[in-house]
Design a protein that fits this description.
Elements (H helix, E strand, L loop, with lengths): L2 E4 L4 E4 L6 H7 L7 H5 L12 E4 L12 H6 L7 E3 L9 E5 L8 H10 L5
Parallel strand pairs: 1-5
Antiparallel strand pairs: 1-2, 3-4, 3-5
């Protein structure tokens, strides 16, 4: 079973292959949304673009390919960013929630999380 390692939260969450990343994060109590998203989000339709995550794993194929909605909505965003509501987990990965406002020590947290390795 894949593991989603939430870098900011310092938690590993086991899930089933084929699960939606947004649903996993919300089920596990992760703070997926910033202020704007917490007061109004689209409920997972890909329209509000408030459920950003940054995929920090080396394996960018751990999630489903970009959807057409993501190609439009993430046009001017970093290549590592995904909309959690549009991403289906295929294998273990590292994600940074709310990458638009990373913690000051985010690079250190990412390096530490990567150094632990992930199961396939």
């Amino acid at each position: 079973m894949p593991i989603v390692r939430f870098v900011r939260e310092g938690r590993d969450v086991q899930c089933r292959s084929g699960e939606n990343l947004r649903e996993i994060a919300l089920r596990e109590g992760m703070q997926l949304y910033g202020f704007k998203g917490s007061i109004g989000n689209c409920g997972g339709c890909g329209q509000c673009i408030t459920c950003f995550v940054s995929v920090e794993s080396k394996d960018q194929g751990a999630l489903s390919p970009l959807t057409e909605i993501e190609k439009i909505k993430l046009k001017n965003r970093p290549d590592t960013w995904r909309l959690a509501c549009q991403a289906i987990v295929k294998s273990s990965l590292l994600v940074l929630t709310k990458p638009q406002s990373p913690p000051p020590n985010s690079q250190k947290l990412i390096e530490e999380a990567l150094s632990k390795g992930l199961p396939k």
